[in-house]
Design brief:
The complex is a heterodimer of chains A (79) and B (264). Chain A is α+β, with helices and mostly antiparallel strands and 79 residues long. Chain A contains 2 helices and 5 strands; from the N terminus they run βαβαβββ. Chain A has helices at residues 11-15, 34-40, and strands spanning 2-7, 23-27, 50-53, 56-58, 69-73. In chain A, 38% of the residues are buried. In chain B, a hairpin with a 2-residue loop joins strand 5 (165-171) and strand 6. The chains are: A alpha+beta (79), B alpha/beta (264).
Chain lengths: 79, 264
């Protein structure tokens, strides 16, 4: 399946966007969770706090559907 | 700070339950003209008692805008002193404040902005031993802390004391805001995992100011009952891409803080 991964901040450095400045198109096996897709891309799960898709916050065990855009969010803790 | 004792003495005499003075009518005239606003709304703010955890980049914007809006009482907790590297974002402070306790400098700044605002400075670090005691008696808690560990402590205290909390966090060009009031909404531990990023966090000062300003707005909306609160939703801001995403947040049935509660 095709999944579009989007990110800003520090994650963009490791995501290596190719669609635009923030988005990378990846082709992975059906049924993979976000965490499993990150493993395929060799992105450490510690770099991603959560994701969001279709207007809802998703944990990393969320399984995207074909063609879905997933925005990855780095841990944010500054004040 | 010269004059701060005088201001504190005047503050002790202020009774936030008394109606608006002629000075207050002039001071707040531009917001009193808002159709959503009234003298009663303004009186609600004067009667409010707000706990601001952290007096850094977020806390600066939150405290200044709440004092400017006419909040009656503010407790400001932060154990640090002002450093030169704070001044790109911590707009409560000026170069002359370097070396001073943040909460002392902040109290002087806030009471110079509005002498009727009662500021209670607490030069304490929030931890598991003192968190519940510190937040007790406040109408709302505003999270302007600089670590996930301390945020989780504050989240649990606010949850246990049934005090709503405005969550805010910032890093680089990104920020988060949400109004947490479990059991109606998720708590922080429902959607933020315990993944502490490295410190210090690089940040553009105006991004911190934007997030703090949004936190102040949510606090004012909650205290006055106007508008649509960011309850059960998370605002994710990316100022580099200039994106504002408002996301639904679901409760975690296995949340170590708030699971097992009945909503409503």
């Amino acid at each position: 399946m095709i999944v579009y991964l989007r990110s800003g901040g520090k994650l963009r450095d490791v995501l290596r966007p190719d669609i635009d400045d923030y988005t990378r198109k990846v082709e992975v096996d059906d049924g993979l969770s976000i965490e499993q897709i990150l493993a395929v891309l060799q992105i450490a799960p510690a770099m991603v706090a959560f994701a969001f898709a279709d207007g809802t916050v998703r944990k990393l065990d969320y399984v995207p559907t074909d063609g879905e855009t997933i925005t990855l969010q780095s841990p944010v803790a500054g004040g | 700070m010269p004059g701060s004792d005088d201001r504190s003495a005047r503050n002790e005499l202020h009774d936030p339950t008394v109606g608006l003075s002629s000075d207050d009518r002039a001071r707040f005239s531009r917001q009193l003209e808002l159709p959503e606003w009234s003298e009663g709304t303004q009186a609600d703010l004067r009667a409010a008692n707000v706990f601001i955890a952290g007096a850094g980049g977020l806390g600066s914007a939150v405290a200044l805008y709440l004092a400017a809006a006419g909040i009656g009482r503010v407790t400001l907790a932060d154990p640090d002193t002002v450093e030169l590297s704070n001044l790109n974002r911590q707009i409560l402070y000026a170069s002359g404040d370097i070396g001073a306790p943040k909460v002392t400098a902040a109290a002087a700044r806030l009471t110079s902005l509005d002498p009727s605002t009662v500021v209670r400075p607490l030069s304490e670090r929030i931890d598991e031993r003192n968190a519940r005691r510190l937040v007790a008696g406040h109408d709302i808690v505003i999270d302007c802390l600089d670590s996930l560990a301390s945020r989780f402590v504050l989240n649990r205290a606010a949850h246990d004391m049934r005090i709503p909390m405005v969550y805010g966090a910032v890093a680089r060009f990104t920020g988060h805001v949400s109004l947490l009031r479990p059991p109606e909404t998720p708590c922080l531990a429902c959607f933020v995992p315990d993944k502490e990023p490295p410190t210090p966090t690089p940040v553009l000062g105006c991004t911190a100011g934007l997030i703090g300003t949004l936190q102040a707005t949510e606090a004012i909306k909650h205290l006055t009952g106007i508008g649509e609160p960011l309850a059960g939703r998370l605002l994710v801001v990316d100022t580099l891409a200039l994106r504002f995403d408002v996301l639904d947040v679901e409760k975690d049935a296995a949340c170590p803080v708030c699971s097992g509660q009945d909503a409503g």
